Amino acid sequence: MTGPVSNYHGYSDLAALKKEAAESPQDAIMPVARQFESVFLQMMLKSMRETVGEGGLFDNESMKTYQGMFDNQLALSLSQQGGIGLADSIAKQLAPEGSALQGRLHSQSAQAAAAVKAPRDES
């Protein structure tokens, strides 16, 4: 999958990832890591949703179905836009030492660390 996924993950998206991984494993590392992060975020959102008490005006099976669909799409969108950093960590571990992907990931993490450490303007 070379382009961003615009809909929540399904069997066809997973089959395309599997095909890409078979054809060029190095190019598939980041999309597979993002897909894993998306599944992780989806499970996290589902667990968070279960902690909220039931009841209320909009508590029915239809609403639960749409909330599940929304959570799937939200998880995928979050992972495609940087997510929580899990995909980058996974890709960094899976990329071979000295590869272009690993170099790019290291420079991104160095830039992020520098941005966090940069002093804020107290104006």
From TrEMBL:
Record flagged with keyword Hydrolase: yes
Coiled coil: none
Superkingdom of source: Bacteria
InterPro entries for the chain: Flagellar_prot_FlgJ_N (IPR019301), Glycosyl_Hydrolase_73 (IPR051056)
Keyword Hydrolase found: yes
Residue intervals of the Flagellar protein FlgJ N-terminal domain: 46-93
Keyword field: Bacterial flagellum biogenesis, Hydrolase
PANTHER family: PEPTIDOGLYCAN HYDROLASE FLGJ (PTHR33308)
Protein name: Rod-binding protein
Organism: Paraperlucidibaca wandonensis
